[in-house]
Amino acid sequence: MLEFILNLSFWQGIFMTTLTICALGLLVIVVAKKCVAPHLKKEHEKVGRLLFRVTAGLIALLISLSYANERVAQGKIMDSLEEEASLLVNSTLLLRLMDTPQGSKIEEKLKKYIDLTINDQWENTVSNPFYSDGAEELRQAYKMTVLLPAENGNQEQLKNRLLDNLDQVIKLMQVRIYSQTVLIPKLIYILCLGMVFMWIFFSVYSVDRISLSFITLYNIFISTLIYFILALSNPLAGPMKMKAHAFEIIQVKGIERTAD
Q1: Where are the alpha helices (DSSP H) in 99-244?
Q2: Whose C-alpha in 34, 87, 230, 257 is 20 to 30 A from the C-alpha of 188?
Q3: How many CA atoms lie within 13 A of 111 on its CB side?
Q4: 90-149 pLDDT, tens per residue?
Q5: What is the CA radius of gyration of the chain?
Q6: Number of Cβ within a 10 Å radius of residue 54
């Protein structure tokens, strides 16, 4: 179900999420009203209204926690991309300082890795994470760096720094690989259970056109937030997937100008 929603466009995904939750909400309210109404007394209404308010407040808290958690996770990937881009620029600078024909070939491999990462849009990262074209270019660049001849102590020092940079780039690339699995945040299940309880408690109110319109508007709002949480929890998939902005800056400006 989640993969289906993420494969839809942004507005289609919001519409499907909203339609599903609103329909379930109205169904639960109507069924609960039919079951509760014959046995409902004055004291029950007070308890039901109190529990409805408490549950609605807890749902708002869960929404906040879920959004904060997924935003932190997304920020981790964004930070790794920015650090990776800076390491690639620094590696290019080191290759320029070494000034060897083999170094120029390694630089071309790094440029191709940047281009493939941008143009891929995480599709190979999701479908074939360890053997994508970008990962292969990076492996070849690392292998060529290991075999890079150092004619003096200065070049040997530059080579070691370059290997350290590429080690870090490979580690940072793993962050994306291990973040590509489509998952539903655990708090979403608790949130959905809370919404069911809230709809049941709402049945103590008078169920008419206006009250149903109000609860439907609330459901639309919560559904939209749930969609955003689901999208944030899967930063490499769906219409809201992240872009390699740091890599795009290098590509637009040119890695040559960035390194100079």
Answers
A1: 101-120, 123-127, 133-146, 153-177, 186-202, 209-232
A2: 34
A3: 18
A4: 888 888 888 888 888 988 988 888 888 888 766 666 566 666 777 888 889 989 988 888
A5: 26
A6: 13
